[in-house]
Amino acid sequence: MSGNLTLALLIGVLYTVGTYLLLQRTLTRIVIGLGLLGHGANLLLLQAGGPAGAVPFIAKGGSGGTAGVVGGTADPLPQAMVLTAIVITFGVSAFLLALAYRSWVLHGEDEVQDDVEDRRLVRRRAQDDHHELVRVVRPEDDL
Amino acid sequence: MIRVLVPLPVVLPLLAAGLSVLFARHQRVQRLLSLLTLAAVVATAPRLLRMADAEGATVVQLGGWAAPAGISLVADRLSTLLLVVSSSVLLAVLLYALGQGVADGRRSTLAVFHPCYLVLAAGISMAFLTGDLFNLFVAFEVMLVASYVLLTLDGGKAQVRAGMTYVVVSLLASVLFVTVIGLVYAATGTVNMADAAGRMADLPEGLRVALGLTMLVVFGIKAAIFPLFSWLPDSYPTAPSPVTAVFAGLLTKVGVYAIIRTQTLLFPGDARIGSVLLVLAILTMVVGILGALVQDDLKRLLSFTIVSHIGYMLLGLGLYSVAGLAGAILYTVHHIVVQTTLFLVAGLMERREGTSSIERAGGLQHVAPLLAVLYLLPALSLAGIPPLSGFLAKLGLLQAGLADGGTLAAVAVAAAVLTSLLTLLAMGRVWSGVFWGPVAAVVPDRDVEDAVDVGVARTPRLMTGATVLAVAGGLAITVVAGPLYGLSVRAAEDLVDRHPYVEAVLGAEAAR
Fold first, then answer.
1. Has the ipTM of the complex gone over 0.85?
2. Interface subset of A 69-88, CB within 8 angstroms of B
3. pTM
């Protein structure tokens, strides 16, 4: 199949920027990153259907140049799939935003928190330090 | 006519979920609706299994469009077997959740619980039944969206923290899934798995292996295999016990099912992917159980055992023989029931002790002897003590591994035996920490945010009853292990010889 170079480059950029944003700590950036990644994936899916053709549904006797020629129409399947994927991405992004808001309400920030194990290690190290009579201030250690 | 039954496990819960939202203020109606729906699915699934076993795969083309263009639901031996197990587990856990909900009386969260639980059930059934990749994606999303809500149901600090990791990792896997679907569609021009199975062979070898490995990564994240599992022990333990139990039993197994289905159908018997799977299986088993051994929190310990035991299923798939796949299928069935049961028991323990810390609990066998028995049976089964189901499933896998004869397979078998012993050690640690010793004073844990009334409240009968039911289910697998293994072998033969599946979906002449 032939590809569209502009689209391919655009997909690459979207994936790159999306991945970069996904590696950030604040949830807002992660949401934006996931949105960009989702767009990249959707474009890829669209690209997978091959080059754009005529509209799939053409009335009989219409004046379309490729009327009646099945091969001349665009492949409708990837478009249906992209539509589904967009709806799903949209819904989940809304949930993620709600989660970010909830996190902001609870913590006053929307950063992804350290996991339990990390925080236990930090706490244990803090205890060890305490035994050595070294005063360690760890404001984030609120487990 | 009986083909009408095939979409029911998906359609019924979805319809009921919609109705359930309407009855948000009528707890009784919601409860009854969920119970009836899941009971109906439990009643349907065995009929589908019998039909699939007797006549081969039953295919329903939704909307009447023929296979490659339309959406097909395929009920073959593997999917219906898993459907039977998953629907039974869903029903048992629903009973447990009802018991807990009635006792705790948190009305606001309960109103959301029922619709989400039903959507989760629909997603799981759809993932098992669907015959094309894109609908597999949709099924995963339906299931995951419900699970996001269930995981963060209470909206407390711990839930939000765990939910973030879980949602972000799952979303990343979903984007990768869409990507790989796009690539498969570009390469083969179809997303129907039976159709793609035939066309995959024409692709250049490098492309095929790349697609196979990308798909392995996608489903590997959902199934929590070795390098991709770290989200699981962080997110599962914070959810309410029934939710964690369902997640532990079913969500990862849907990932395993997807790995088995896609690898056998689309990339059959590729030796390189096979050895990658074996290496991953070894690492998953050993790293998972080593992680479990050092945990103090009971639910975290159990979460690590999920990871570890996913390795056994990968081992069976990596061998890619009928015996290996049959072992993997039997192991999946056994593990769904046993792991769910262990989390239910953990929930009961947490309720009695007010903490999920192994160190701080103690002497529970004096206070609750029934609970001790309920813990011991699935724990021994998980470790693989004869004659319990875990032993039989492991035996099948070990024999298949030894029959393979390769060095890697032998190493994997050794790792599997080692993992069994370490599992026994981990389960023994829980036993000596929680059940033996002097009775610990109940100190409600401030780490457990939903432990408002634990320790003091009496355990509702319904919760204990549901757990007894689940333990009995685990024992039942042991009793019917013979016929079940026969069924697993027939399902594995279907997987190795892809023709019946492809023929059922596409029709005899299209499959050549």
1. no
2. 77-78, 81, 84-85, 88
3. 0.89
